[in-house]
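Here is the promised in-class demo. Please do not try to memorize the tokens; focus on the logic of going from shape to residues.
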């Protein structure tokens, strides 16, 4: 399914697992590209990281996420083949990321992007 056909909010269900996304590409940002408020949130949430300059962040639903916090998903994942990583919010819910590549139409030259969704069961 191409990115152009996935322009609205969609909900997928697979045996009790629900995934919700709008397939909107979001820019990956360095710490200096975040707003001062977002930088403050990132510094407090990710104080364990020694070199914040190497971290890539994105903003989703008002929260700043660090791409380093996402676990890689393999082909046997219950999330399906589209998603590349996940981060748990609770035992039953979390955030999914898809890393954009240029041939999908969601990437922009010289700008890394992700598509984000959330899951729950």
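The designed amino acids, position by position:
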């Amino acid at each position: 399914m191409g990115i152009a056909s996935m322009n609205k909010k969609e909900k997928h269900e697979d045996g009790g697992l629900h995934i919700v996304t709008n397939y909107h590409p979001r820019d990956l940002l360095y710490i200096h590209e975040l707003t001062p408020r977002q930088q403050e949130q990132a510094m407090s949430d990710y104080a364990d990281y020694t070199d914040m300059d190497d971290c890539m962040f994105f903003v989703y639903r008002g929260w700043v996420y660090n791409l380093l916090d996402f676990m890689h998903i393999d082909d046997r994942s219950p999330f399906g083949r589209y998603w590349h990583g996940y981060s748990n919010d609770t035992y039953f819910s979390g955030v999914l990321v898809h890393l954009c590549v240029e041939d999908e139409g969601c990437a922009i030259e010289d700008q890394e992007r992700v598509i984000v969704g959330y899951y729950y069961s």
